[in-house]
Amino acid sequence: MQTNKKNIADAVRFTKGYFQAMRILRKFKPDVVFTKGGYVSVPVGLAASRLKMPLLIHDSDAIFGMSTKVLAPKAKLIATGFPKNVFADSTYSDKIIFTGNPVRKELLSGSLARAQKIFQFRSQKPVVLVFAGSQGATAINEIVFGGLDIILKDYNLIHHTGSNDIEQARVLAHKLPDNLRESYRPFDFLKTELADALFYADIVIGRAGANSIAEIAAHSKSAILIPSPYSANNHQQRNAEVLERMGAARIIQQVDLSPIRLISEIDKILADPKAKKYLQNSIHELWISDSASRIARLILHTNKDGVNV
Question: Which CATH class name applies to 105-284?
């Protein structure tokens, strides 16, 4: 009963959004409509199609989200964050152009000197960056906490915990002996420091979201990715599978994650310079330095007859 009520409410909101989009588009008369995914884009995209306005879509992941699947038949073009061959079986492969995923310019300006000043590691041990996303990923954090003393014996660790787990990280850091505490830098959120952390890191550990992958690719870092089993449309798993086939990252499923497994994978990569270099080169193939400009050019050169690149 509760589900039926929610479905009815969603249908009402969708219909209302569609007619609101129609009114807005009629008022502003845009030359082209660009959507970036998410359910909110569907009524806008359908309204644009109904009004015969050219529609462009950008999808960041290696599998089309529901909004892209709905709007793809109406779109003039689908720009993608992953190479075109990833979508070879798609009905709409003729509409696909690989533009990559844009990365904020400030994330590309990392500095070794600034990183050393910010993180102040006293030893020359390799640097591991655990980047769990803005809200954190408790499953990853708990594994890191469980193996913290082992990790810190051989590595310096920058740990982006998210807001939910930062207090536990600080308590654990306080309990560490001095020689290990100096190798541990937990943060609830890396802001401007993220560019320097990415630049500084020898290896990055995190989820398999498209934005995180693009940031790692931009810095050509070896990576261990743990796809979230709860991501919409299971897109993180698909992203991870593509990277694994490319030899662009090592993948550990969350169900298989343990302190020993994680530390073993870190050791294998950092003890083998050839393997590390291969991962770095392979993931960098996903990096398109002018991604935002490519998307902008596609938007500017689209008209009712198609895309004139």
Answer: alpha beta
